[in-house]
Design brief:
- By secondary structure, this protein is of the alpha+beta class.
- The protein is built from 3 helices and 9 strands.
- It has a 4-stranded antiparallel β-sheet. Strands 5-6-9 form a 3-stranded antiparallel β-sheet, with helices on one face. A two-stranded antiparallel sheet has the order 7-8.
- A hairpin with a 4-residue loop joins strand 7 and strand 8.
- Helix 1 runs antiparallel to helix 2.
Length: 178
């Protein structure tokens, strides 16, 4: 388990959110691996190349400039989200630090309000953990699919290393076994 103190990495007030008697079970952040970076770079070069050829043939250079700026902006925004997003799982709740425009917001999700923990394992044991909530509980936690840059229906922990282990930690915490 990753329950050692990581003050150098998590100096962003997440640990200040802990209440007395609350124990950290796991903490982490989204991890882009080299495969994700390679796919993103390949897509960008392909998309920019196709648009560049089309705009040169059609003499629409302004369109290419707008498309390139939009793509670069969306990639920077995606990596900014990945850098500013943090997760903290305790014996009582899951705490999310999520970027919101220029600031970060901290949200808390009590473990007793989680109905199910679903994890999707991808390459190298990395993946996404989806937390389905009880029907009576409403939350304003809005998480983003960091691979596709779209909103998720349920709160998620994105691009987590050893996703199966972390999913099991959360499930055991819900059951009171940790």
């Amino acid at each position: 388990m990753k329950n050692e103190i990581l003050d150098e990495i998590f100096n962003d007030n997440l640990r200040d959110q802990l209440e007395e008697g609350e124990v950290v079970i796991w903490e982490g952040k989204p991890q882009f691996n080299n495969y994700n970076r390679l796919v993103t770079a390949g897509f960008l070069f392909l998309f920019i190349g196709v648009n560049l050829i089309n705009s040169i043939l059609g003499n629409h250079h302004w369109l290419t400039a707008i498309i390139i700026v939009a793509l670069v902006f969306s990639v920077f925004r995606l990596f900014f989200r990945q850098k500013k997003t943090r997760y903290l799982v305790t014996n009582a709740r899951v705490i999310f630090q999520l970027p919101n425009k220029r600031k970060t917001q901290i949200h808390s999700l009590p473990l007793h309000q989680i109905e199910d923990v679903i994890y999707e394992e991808g390459r190298n044991k990395n993946g996404t953990i989806t937390l389905t909530l009880k029907k009576t509980f409403k939350t304003d936690i809005k998480t983003i699919d960091l691979k596709k840059n779209v909103s998720r229906k349920n709160p998620t922990l994105e691009l987590i290393e050893n996703v199966e282990d972390v999913g099991n930690y959360i499930q055991q915490a819900i059951e009171g076994k940790l």
